[in-house]
Design brief:
The chain is 20% helix and 41% strand. With 117 residues, it is α+β, with helices and mostly antiparallel strands. It has one domain. Strands 3-2-1-4-5 form a 5-stranded mixed β-sheet.
Length: 117
């Protein structure tokens, strides 16, 4: 199986957060402004049924940065600790994340469908 390639694009957001990253693979935006681009991209690919290895390349230069095992990374998340970032088992966020219009659209029923009472 050939290694899939994606481009990592940094966005300076300032403050304690520093950089967030967007990931483009085969012309498709998979992840937008993520603090955990590798694991979030792996989850996005896994939901599409894509497995194997992913080579993350610099968005500007195209130089390889790191390789991700999609299945393994999809089950992890990066968590900031007092001493350093650590990989932890993935768990869905508990509602403290910022508002996302994309998430709102996905959560709402399709037009014409009634909400269950």
């Amino acid at each position: 199986m050939e290694t899939l390639k994606a481009r990592l694009h940094p966005h300076w957001v300032g403050g304690k957060a520093g950089y967030k990253y967007s990931v483009i693979c085969n012309g498709e935006l998979l992840v937008s402004r993520s603090a955990d681009a590798a694991c979030d991209t792996a989850r996005a690919l896994l939901t599409k049924g894509i497995t194997g290895k992913l080579l993350m390349c610099d968005g500007k230069t195209g130089k390889p940065r790191y390789t991700v095992n999609i299945e393994k990374a999809a089950g992890l998340m990066v968590e900031e600790t007092a001493s350093a970032p650590r990989f932890r088992k993935y768990r869905q966020r508990g509602g403290s994340e910022p508002y996302s219009p994309e998430a709102e659209v996905l959560a709402s029923p399709a037009r014409g469908e009634e909400k269950a009472a």
